[in-house]
Amino acid sequence: MDAEDREAEGVDAEVMDIEILVVPDCPNTGPAAELLRQVLDDMGLHDTGFSTRVIADRAEAEAVAFTGSPTFLIDGRDPFAEPGRPSGLACRLYRDPDGSGPSGLPGAERLRQALPQARPRDLKG
């Protein structure tokens, strides 16, 4: 995917802020980072970086509405959020729309689809 394709899909690597939130010693920290890098590369976003942040206590989990490890935040938004799910220090399970799962990571296609849905920082209110 080239810059024109990314623009058509609404993906702007210059303004996208991506973060993976995890609990200490989460076994999915490495696989989550690998999956995200693979998806970004597949989308032609080779220069787009991301960070990983460890959520160490319940207060921090509540402050960021953390619902399990790993959580992907795109421009501060959890594209896989489930309404009513409480904050807490726990493992997170993902289900694909076809009902498959559970898995400790979202599918690559679901993550790819979530990236263009992020709102660029310069459009936030």
In short, what is this structure?
The chain has 125 residues and is α+β, with helices and mostly antiparallel strands.
Notes on the protein architecture:
With 125 residues, the protein is α+β, with helices and mostly antiparallel strands. The protein contains four helices and three strands, in the order H-E-H-E-H-E-H. Helices cover 27% and strands 10% of the residues. The chain has a three-stranded mixed β-sheet with strand order 2-1-3, covered by helices on one side. Helix 2 links the parallel strand 1 (18-22) and strand 2 (51-54). Residues 1-13 and 119-125 have low confidence and may be disordered.
How much is the average pLDDT?
Answer: 82
Number of helices: 4
Secondary structure category: alpha+beta
Helical proportion, percent range: 25-40%
Number of strands: 3
SSE arrangement:
Layout: H1 3-9, E1 18-22, H2 29-42, E2 51-54, H3 58-63, E3 71-74, H4 108-114
Parallel strand pairs: 1-2
Antiparallel strand pairs: 1-3
Helix pairs in contact: 2-4
Key terms:
disordered N terminus, 125 residues, three-stranded mixed sheet, globular, alpha+beta
